[in-house]
D-alanine--D-alanine ligase
Amino acid sequence: MNEQHESRPRIRVAVVFGGRNSEHAVSLLGAGNVLSAIDRAKYDVVPIGIGTDGRWVLAPDDQRFEIEGTELPSVDASGTEVALPSGAGALVTLEPGRIPDSLGQVDVVFPMLHGPFGEDGTIQGLLEMAGVRYVGSGVLASAVGMDKAYMKAVLAAAGLPVGRYVVVRDRDWRLERERVLKEIEDLGLPVFVKPSRAGSSQGISRVDGAETLERAIELAREHDPKVLVEAAIDGREIECAVLQSPGDEPPGASVPGEVLVNDQHDFYDFTAKYIGSDIELRVPADLPEQVAEELRRMAVRAFEALGCEGLARVDFFYTADGRLLLNEINTMPGFTAMSVAPQLWAASGVSYSELVDRLIRLALDRPAGLR
């Protein structure tokens, strides 16, 4: 522990949440759980909300974010504005007509952010420039993990099996639409259309007929001009969480779990995940022992192929003929106590509060900068 830590009785952790994207509310749900679970005897906590306009503000420490009916929570951006100057490692307040006031050094940031402008390497780059340690993957792994097109390319290059897909880039869709539609036609039907750089199942559609394909692509383009179209895979949805180990030990994988969605939903969409109680997570998944072990090995390989740090959730399909196909890896998965990754770790013997503590410790133990 450095001198900075020794001069204060508690390690200072800034929990950052919100953000200016469609996953703003999902971020708040996880942040509320982290703020409740973090050990206040060990950590001095500074909650920071990022409003939908991009402003960073001090947030109340006693706020608990919940979905009320169908109304999603959001950051109250009227609080005191704060900033993290490059190279300083200290938070400062920014109030009109007043000299910036220092809030003191931050030992580690817990970026409870999802989606673009948070989970995609942007805040990781800011924190690297500020010289502040942080929970989770670095700039490159976060960026690749956010962009499903590049993610699948990296996973396939590492020898991991992925399904068939077509990338629909903005220019190609505007200027060569017929060629793009022909490429997609070769995938067959049904297909899943999704934004390449979004999460929480935002903007995703299942397309069963050619007449609805263009509309589904336009819906996805509302979230991201770059779109991924995936051939449907007839298989069970199995998920596995990966956690970095201390020192030079290899990452560890949780027991796998199976996501079961009720018949009201065509797939594991945003409403099923967050609004209703429409999913069941079966842990451990009912798999042959050798399949479960192979899935766990593949999850760790995916984690290492992207160069992930901290934690990740890796999603698979298990087909009727016994194949495992890797769907995607999420470098900052949903993080409420009832989200999939924390539940998988709870079933593997790591409680939610222990998971939060371990992630902070991993961040503190690794060097800032290139590694």
User: Anything to note?
Assistant: The mean pLDDT is 89. The CA atoms of residues 172 and 180 lie 7 Å apart.
